[in-house]
Write a structure and sequence with these properties.
The chain has eight helices and nine strands. With about 240 residues, the protein is an alpha/beta fold.
């Protein structure tokens, strides 16, 4: 087995599917089925999901919301997505638990590393909601933090594209994909993989990142099986 434990970062925007807003139940089901299949191979999976399909703190701040309050709203958006994913996983017969960075029982248990690791070892998919629990931090930073805390072997960042490119492949047809790249090269090239805080945390804690296309069914399992060319690995 290539990985024993992973932290899977999912984009809130990807949950919109083709709707342009909210949660696409078909996309949610696809995600749940892929995640369940991965757990059946023995991989322990922690998940952090964004909230951009519902509300983004930075966009709210640009429209007049106080950043502090806007980020709190964004944290709650991640909780909504986490509950939706939990339900989808349970509908597929997969054990799943939501831990929240802010106390809000009975919606979810308060996050702690010992509890998260305990649940992972019991075979639960552990969905860690609410970001870091603090404003001014993105869910990318939240996922980096959780990956380091739960001692994941890798942080897998599911996106709409199959890795990191020299430019935005959706805008530049000549963009070239990296098979792997170092953190220092990301800084040097100014690539927008994650925010700087998240990237620095992974670099300092030697946490590799695998960027891949989660929206293509089957990709998650192919990476877990060690198939090459499915994404871009970031490392020291």
């Amino acid at each position: 087995m290539r990985y024993k434990r992973i932290l899977l970062k999912l984009s809130g925007e990807s949950l919109m599917g083709h709707q342009g807003y909210g949660i696409d139940t078909d996309r949610l089901k696809e995600y749940a089925q892929q995640i369940k299949r991965a757990t059946e191979t023995g991989v322990q999976i922690g998940i952090v999901i964004g909230g951009g399909n519902i509300f983004r703190g930075l966009q709210g701040a640009a429209k007049g919301f106080d950043r502090y309050r806007g980020d709190q709203m964004g944290m709650l958006a991640t909780v909504i997505n986490s509950l939706a994913l939990q339900q989808a996983l349970q509908s597929e017969g997969c054990k799943a638990s939501v831990l929240t960075a802010i106390r809000m029982e009975p919606i979810g248990e308060l996050y702690s590393k010992p509890r998260a690791v305990e649940l992972l070892e019991l075979g639960y998919v552990v969905i860690m909601a609410g970001g870091t629990g603090n404003p001014y931090f993105t869910t990318d930073t939240g996922s980096s933090l959780r990956a380091v805390e739960i001692e994941a072997d890798v942080m897998m960042k599911g996106t709409r594209v199959d890795g990191i490119y020299t430019a935005d492949p959706e805008k530049d047809p000549n963009a070239e994909r990296f098979e792997d790249i170092t953190y220092d090269e990301i800084y040097k090239r100014g690539l927008k993989v994650m925010d700087m805080t998240a990237t620095a945390m992974c670099k300092e804690n030697n946490m590799p990142i695998m960027v891949f296309n989660m929206d293509k069914v089957g990709n998650l399992q192919k990476i877990l099986d060690g198939e090459k060319g499915m994404g871009t690995e970031v490392h020291n």
